[in-house]
Hints:
By secondary structure, the chain is mostly helical. The protein has two domains: 3-63, lambda repressor-like DNA-binding domains (434 Repressor (Amino-terminal Domain)), CATH 1.10.260; 67-171, no CATH class. It has ten helices and no strands. The chain has helices spanning 3-16, 21-25, 31-39, 46-56, 60-63, 67-83, 87-92, 102-122, 126-140, 148-171. The longest helix is centred in the last third of the chain and has 24 residues, at 148-171. It is elongated.
Amino acid sequence: MNSIELGRRIKEARIAKKMTQSELVGDFITRNMLSQIENGSATPSIKTLAYLSAVLEVPLNELMPSPTEGALSQLVAAKKYLSDGENQKIIEMEESYPPELSDEFFALFSYAYRSLSKKMLESDHYSEAAHLSQKAIEYAGKGIYANDMIKSESILLLKQITEKYNSVCSNSSHASSKDVHFLLP
Length: 185
């Protein structure tokens, strides 16, 4: 349950009933606790939530956001990041994406990792570019939206990274540099 969304809904219901925080809480909880709940910094117990629901005359299920609702808003945000070219923000969602939308997020991660890999290659950060390309390959092969095109492009990108890195090494003063192959699949 998203405590920020829950708090927002409780506050909106209280304001719609033209109640102050003190009027709503009565002797059940402190006004300070309600303030924390409304701001999303505290999550009410089920007992407190049932009390607030009864006093506000709002069904409990209307106060509580559904898990799918939060998941869909995350997906919409990730798609916006993709269209805006904010690939790093998509990658930051990797640890917290909703499992019920894993297939969709795998596809988004594959695009984001591939794009970031290209940027790293352009700025001559070969090791990071190779790592990102490998992640793109991994995600491009997962889920019902597995994408052979992204996977193939990422494999080719990994080959370009290897070739460019080896070219830079052979042109440098390090005569002992050996060819490197970044774990091509």
